[in-house]
Structure to design on (490 residues):
């Protein structure tokens, strides 16, 4: 095994181009587990810890450019206002020690259906900035996950950052597991209200071969909210609407039975989380509307 | 490969390190510092917790090559680290720290239920002894490093803060209540000292 230690992003790209089989390592919270258990013996390890650009973030007009190695702890501490869904998801990752090392770039690189960041990224809307010596491209998050632990990266590409839409409304995240810390999700659900476009987006984790959006549920809810004038009158969501939204979210799952839970439990739990997160975010939206109207 | 880094305030050099080796393995097997414990090797148990450039991490998940030029504090250097922090707000001169020989020979010499007199122990170590938070002792080093870092950041932690800070450290003996007592005790003593 060779240990490659590029000092800059350019050197990292050159190294990846020269050794396309090199396994990038940043926080090490996935890669080292595989090496410790002898599940993986890469020919080259490509250490990204010296590439300091990767641990920086930038809050722009509409998006946050989040460096691939920004640790979850930093997201929780610094980006809660801009990325509330991702900050909540980050807080459910493992333990403080793991959150101090791991970041969204690793979650995307591993592309496990159980990765905690994915539902939040899908719900907020994001693009993954990847680069190789050939150039840069932005991959929409919906096209990034291509299979179980597979993603749209080419062999010579590295993940540089994620461009995540800043929240324009309430966001929520929910995860099922046996305890709060150190848990791989049995299943997870992210929801974001986007009042500016009057749309709702979702993300489901651990309930299909890849992280997915519940697109049929989104379309149904968008239409129901529009038809009832909910965005303007900020009424309580009709229970029948919430119920159907939940059922459609369950229907978007394609889960399996495994050691963490059964397929039917996952479908059920996703429906429950969908209804709850819709209620939480919608109540928050109504509260914000009342405050604005009260002040006017 | 060779790895040069700082351990407990002193420059160290580890030779013949395999490229896929963890920081934990280097500490235990190359430098003879077995204080950091090796259990799950997957970041679940926190027994191998050390400070890497001040940040608590699972040393089993840090590749040895990633620590080149960086600073590590292990449980063997915790007493000195805590003393430097209390007296000087950290080590400014570079002359402090714990030598490899001292660290290898390090053993807990508590002043049974006397506080503020034992120079060999950090306040959190003394509190663990006084509160009876140690049974088999396997999880203790990781808990000490994690708890000490939390008290540095958050001198007046709530119970929820303590639980969260220690949520990555598993104990299978004492059942956490005495560990909670120990951290509360250390926080209270820290408050009295100021």
């Amino acid at each position: 095994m060779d240990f490659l230690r590029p000092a800059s992003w350019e050197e990292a790209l050159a190294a990846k181009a020269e050794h396309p089989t090199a396994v990038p390592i940043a926080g090490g919270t996935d890669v080292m587990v595989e090496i410790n258990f002898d599940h993986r013996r890469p020919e080259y390890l490509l250490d990204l810890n010296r590439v300091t650009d990767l641990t920086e973030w930038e809050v722009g007009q509409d998006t946050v450019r989040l460096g691939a190695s920004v640790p979850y702890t930093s997201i929780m501490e610094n980006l809660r206002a801009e990325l509330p869904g991702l900050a909540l998801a980050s807080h459910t990752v493992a333990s403080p020690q793991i959150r101090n090392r791991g970041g969204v770039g690793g979650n995307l690189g591993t592309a496990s259906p159980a990765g905690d960041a994915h539902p939040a990224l899908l719900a907020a809307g994001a693009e993954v900035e990847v680069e190789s010596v050939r150039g840069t491209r932005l991959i929409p998050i919906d096209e990034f996950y291509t299979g179980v632990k597979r993603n749209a990266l080419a062999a010579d590409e590295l993940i540089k950052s994620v461009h995540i839409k800043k929240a324009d409304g309430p966001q929520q995240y929910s995860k099922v597991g046996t305890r709060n810390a150190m848990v791989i999700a049995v299943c997870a659900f992210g929801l974001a209200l986007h009042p500016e476009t009057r749309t709702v987006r979702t993300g489901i984790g651990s309930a299909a071969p890849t992280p997915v959006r519940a697109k049929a549920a989104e379309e149904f809810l968008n239409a129901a909210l529009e038809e009832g004038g909910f965005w303007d009158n900020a009424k309580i969501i009709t229970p029948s609407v919430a119920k159907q939204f939940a059922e459609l979210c369950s229907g978007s799952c394609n889960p399996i039975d495994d050691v963490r839970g059964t397929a039917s439990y996952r479908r059920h739990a996703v429906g429950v989380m969908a209804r709850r997160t819709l209620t939480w975010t919608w109540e928050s939206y109504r509260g914000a509307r009342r405050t604005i109207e009260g002040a006017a | 490969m060779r790895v040069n880094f700082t351990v407990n305030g002193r420059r160290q050099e580890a030779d013949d390190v395999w490229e896929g080796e963890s920081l934990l393995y280097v500490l235990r097997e190359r430098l003879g510092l077995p204080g950091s414990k090796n259990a799950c090797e997957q970041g679940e148990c926190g027994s191998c917790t050390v400070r890497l450039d001040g940040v608590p991490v699972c040393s089993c998940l840090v590749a040895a090559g990633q620590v080149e030029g960086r600073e590590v504090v292990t449980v063997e250097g915790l007493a000195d680290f805590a003393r430097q922090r209390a007296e000087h707000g950290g080590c400014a001169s570079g002359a402090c720290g714990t030598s490899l020989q001292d660290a290898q020979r390090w053993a807990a010499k508590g002043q049974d239920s006397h506080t503020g007199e034992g120079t060999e122990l950090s306040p959190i170590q003394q509190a663990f002894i006084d509160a009876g938070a140690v049974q088999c002792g396997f999880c203790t080093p990781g808990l000490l490093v994690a708890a000490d870092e939390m008290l540095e950041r958050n001198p007046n932690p709530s119970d929820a803060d303590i639980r969260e800070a220690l949520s990555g450290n598993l104990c299978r003996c004492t059942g956490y209540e005495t560990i909670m007592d120990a951290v509360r005790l250390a926080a209270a003593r820290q408050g009295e000292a100021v």
